[in-house]
Amino acid sequence: MSPTVTRLAELATRWSAALDEQLPAATVLRRQLHAAPCASGEEGPARDILIAALADHVSFEAIADTGAVGRIGPQDGPSVAVRAELDALPVTELTDAPFASRNGVMHACGHDVHQAAVVALLRAARHLELPLGLVGLLQPREESYPSGALEAIEARVIERFDVAHVIGAHVHPGVRTGAVAAGGGFINAAADEIDIRVEGRGGHGAYPHSASDTVAAVAQIAIGIPEVVRRTVSPLRPALISVGTLTAGEGAANVLPAQARIRATMRTTDPADRVALFDAVRLMAEHTAEAYGTTATAVLVEGEPALINDPELAAGTDDWLGRLGVDGAEPMRSLGADDFSYFCDAVPSVMLFVGVETADRHPQPALHHPQFLPGDDAVGLAARALMAGYLAAAERVLGIEHHRADAISPVS
User: Fold this and answer.
1) Torsions phi, psi of 39, nearest 5?
2) Cα 348 to Cα 314: distance, rounded to the nearest angstrom
């Protein structure tokens, strides 16, 4: 085993032990954050709590309005960033926790856990000799637009901090409790919106021959969308379009409205499908509307690109998870979306999913559910997931030949 590999193994041992010492305080912090969540675009108070918790460790600068970024370890040369999302959801919490939110906003996606995990990881690294810089990336607006990740990219955070890789960890009830899922390749879908507006000549319901029926046209377009998906995208590449809103008229039974509208979400896993599928929907909508004597205009509202984990980095992270005593799980792939994908587009990166459960709830609440509440042990698990990602990234940046977990002794 090379001296550099030995040093990384020793670092992992010391870092893991230091993390254990930080977890009690991180648990208190997690509960504080959970009790006072901040909506997207209003994350200043949450950011300030995290900066205060790291005041003796990290010097932060503002990014993306309500976010912050700071670096510890070597101040020159490549670094590895760990991301924590700052925002919560407009959900009224329905848990019985003594630290439940009372302000109509809720950490129903577990961002409080992610924030506390990043703080614990950075605090634990304070007295360690890191081989690369460690960047804490406190990102606003993951749950809404404009994307905080995209604004961080546009603020040249990657270049200014010489970030070689970004590591993210997200709690998920779909992963086996206590395990962490890595996995290379497609993880989350590109998430775009399609806005279709149908225009016609309104009229009286008793005289449809004197009007153009936008209701019939928009209904036929909505029904035709699944067939467009089937005919456009290979079934071997996941893709879907779901209609979330269909509106026409203002409540009258005998009035044929002049306008109707569809709003749909489009999820694709291949960049080429993202273009082809929208074009196919647009053509179908235009021709269907024309057949009903109306016109249709379709607009694509671009969202996050597909989240693609770097295969080599994911494999290395999986092995370091094993060395840190964390069980691995099958890759967590879904048509959900996360703006972490912008970091994956910028540099080879990896998103990890941390298996959690909500105590005494059956069936388990999903992400964004008002009863979703991972246990406090999720903080330590998420922090170790981020640690494994950093160690794998360090191997890659330092040009170390990858060693599988079963080839070297585990962290004691």
Assistant:
1) -70, 160
2) 10
